[in-house]
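pasting for the record
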Amino acid sequence: MAQTAATADLAAWRAEMTKPPGALGLAARAVQLKINRIIPEKVHAAITAAMQGMTRAILTGSDFATGAPLVQATLDERLVRVRAAIDGWKKAAAAEGGIAGAGGFVLAAADFPLLMSFKIKLLFEIAAAFGHDGAELSERLYILHIFELAFSDSGHRARVFEAMDGWDQRQQPTDLSSFDWRAFQQQYRDHIDLAKLAQLLPVVGAPVGAIVNWRLVEKLGHTAVMAYRMRLESLPPLPEGEGGAHA
């Protein structure tokens, strides 16, 4: 029964990832485009530079290493570790967002790369908890795709999901020439600009910044859990008592 319920939960998430945009989504997209014109160019420039540097580090650096992947563990044991990681990074992101929210545009520009580093470190921890080695290029590409799933409009999200489905049965690229960096950066920026704009407002910026950062990390964590569960679903079921019932 538990496995049936969990499978249904995963199926609902799959449907959400591939559904076409509705009227609300189209309206939000229009607002995001307007927001892009309101935020000062120096903030846009700082965000773009941070995105470029961070994404290079994700795929080539060792700063995000989180130790050996957890190979021998039940699903429940993995989820305990994942939930602890999500809670820890949510608290760190909320504290940092509150400080940045009190500082206006300058600190907001600094908040962007720091928050992104929190998110990426969280994804590497979740990958390790699910038994995947973040040092491998294919795993780092999967991490980038999880990031895109969480922070993209519905059209781009559906294309990313299609590329991720059946990941372990696909031939993975051996270089980065096929990865669309421009779309990665623009989708993330457009997705969070609306939420982060309120962080720049006087007086309310600090509490808003804390709440926004908390929710962004929470959303990313949930997306990662579902994405790695999707990979587990494509593998032979584990024996009873070894995490075979997905939770």
